[in-house]
Amino acid sequence: MSIRPLVIIPDSRLRLISDPIVRVDARVRAIVEDMFETMYDAPGIGLAAVQVGIPERIITVDVVRREEGEEEGAEEKKNPIALINPEIISSSEEISVYSEGCLSIPEYYADVERPARVKVRYMDLNGETQEIDADGLLATCVQHEIDHLNGVLFIDHISKLKRDRVMKKFTKIAKEKERDGV
């Protein structure tokens, strides 16, 4: 397992539509292991393969956190879920709003409206078709990551003015890093 470098906006790879996985094999399982390690290290609650430079339909999520009130340094609870070729097959009319962030857009958060509940069909690490009913933070996270597979970023769900400001800021940072040889 290894931590992979994150793809940060304005990198055009984040706008790629990811390719479906034909077969779940050792290569795919190794990518998933690296994605979990990268996601936990960041730290994040979700990651799409395209965010580590692999435009394939793989996402990892884990919205379980250490319980409030537990001592600092206590073992964090985990519930890692890998979804291969995930697709939303139904969603609620009810909407929820979460303040979303993204590992590919560091330190920027904005309120995003999404369906409160979704049903998702996907393949697990054994190549078996599964379905999951998600609500709350899990529903938001899964929708956010599936958006990545379709070249959509959470900032695409906010006003054009705010999105333009974010893109301008990160384009400037990228140019400065390029100029400084970082």
Automatic annotation (TrEMBL):
Its EC number is 3.5.1.88. Fe cation binds at C102, H144, H148. This is Peptide deformylase. Keywords: Hydrolase, Iron, Metal-binding, Protein biosynthesis. Removes the formyl group from the N-terminal Met of newly synthesized proteins. Requires at least a dipeptide for an efficient rate of reaction. N-terminal L-methionine is a prerequisite for activity but the enzyme has broad specificity at other positions. GO terms for biological process: translation. It comes from the Bacteria. GO terms for molecular function: metal ion binding; peptide deformylase activity. The gene is def. PANTHER family: PEPTIDE DEFORMYLASE. NCBIfam families: pept_deformyl, PRK00150.1-3. InterPro entries: Peptide_deformylase, Peptide_deformylase_sf. Binds 1 Fe(2+) ion. Belongs to the polypeptide deformylase family. The active site is at E145. It catalyses: N-terminal N-formyl-L-methionyl-[peptide] + H2O = N-terminal L-methionyl-[peptide] + formate. Gene3D superfamilies: Peptide deformylase. The lineage of its organism: Bacteria, Pseudomonadati, Pseudomonadota, Alphaproteobacteria, Hyphomicrobiales. Its cofactor is Fe(2+). It comes from Ancylobacter novellus (strain ATCC 8093 / DSM 506 / JCM 20403 / CCM 1077 / IAM 12100 / NBRC 12443 / NCIMB 10456) (Starkeya novella). Pfam families: Pep_deformylase.
